[in-house]
Fold:
Amino acid sequence: MTIQSRISVTMSCKTGHICMKVMIVAGFLLLLQPVFAQYHFNELDETLKQNQKQLGNNIAAVIWKGDTIVYKKELGDFNAKTAAPIASASKWLTAALVMMFVEEGKIGLDDKITKWLPEYARYGKNYITIRHCLTHMTGIQQDEKLIAKLFDRKKFASLEDEVNSFAAHEIQTNPGTEFRYGAIGMDIAGRVLEVVSKKRFDLLIRQKLFVPLGMRRTTFSDLEGGAVNPSGGAQSSADDYIKFLSMLLHKGKVGDKQILSEESVNQLIQVSVAPDKIKYAPKNMQGYSYALGSWVMAADTGGKTSIIACPGFIGTWPLIDYTRGYAYIIISKTPVNDEKPQVYATIKEVIERGIIR
Structure:
C-alpha cells in the first residue's frame, strides 16, 4: 500500500469516527426536542428579567417536570451550582429526615421529647411531642420579632446547648393548641435525632439524605463554628434542592431507589394545622395551612395537598405542584420584602402557562 493510500484510509477512519459522534449527539438532541417542545418558557424568561432587581439581581431558577429538568435560568453572578443560605427552606429537609427515623421505627411522631431530652421534664414540659415540634405547636414562648434576624442568632457551642436553653423558656400556651412559626420546634426535633443516632445533626442528614440524593453542595455545617441550626441553617444550590423536590414529587422515589416511602411522604405533606390555629406566621404565608415543615398553599376538594411550598426569608422559594406534576426552586441572596411574595405569585402563574399551554 502506498503512503497516499494509507493516509486516505486513516483519514477515512477518522472521518467516520467523527461522523459517528456527530450522529450520536444529533440523535440525542432529537430525543430531547419533543420534551422541550411541549413547554413555552419565553414569558418566564422575560418575567425573571423584569423582576431581577426585586429578586436580588443574582438568581437561579430550576423547574422539574416528569423525570427531568425542563427549565434553568441563571441571572447575575449566580448559577444553579451556587450554594447559598436557604433559611427556612431548611425546615423541609429536617422534617424529611425526621420522617426517615419514623419510617425506621426509631421514633414516633407522637412520642414525648422528654424520652430523649430529660431537661424538659425538669421544667414541666412533659407533653411536647415530636409532631408538635414539626408543626410549631410546642407552646414554648419565643420572641417572634427575632425570627427574621437570622444572622443575629445567639451563638451556642452545640445544638445540645441551644436546645437545652429552650427548656427554661416560659410556656405561652398548651402544646398542640396554637401555631407560632419559629425555630424552636425544628431545633428540638433535630436534637432528638442527634440523641437517637449518637451523631451530629449536620453529619447525620448528609449521610442519610444528601448523599443518597446526590446533593453534594448542601450542608448544615456552620463554617463559623456555631451550633448546627436544623430550622434555618442549611446552604444549598438550585441544582441540589431540585433533587429533593423531585424525590417528594415522585412520592419518595428517585429512579429505582425509594428514599422515603410513599406513606411517609404523604404524612410529610398532608395538612397538619388549619389556618384557624395559626396565631403567628410570616406575612407572606398568612392564611395558609401547614404540613410538617412546609406550607400547604392549595388542597383539592378531598383535602389532599395539591400545592406545597417552603419559602425562606433570604429569598429561596421551593414549591411542588402535585396537580400539574412539576416542582421548582428559585434561589437568591436577598431577604424577602413586601414586593417579593407578589413577584413569586406572578412567577408561579407564568410557569403554569408555560407548562400546560
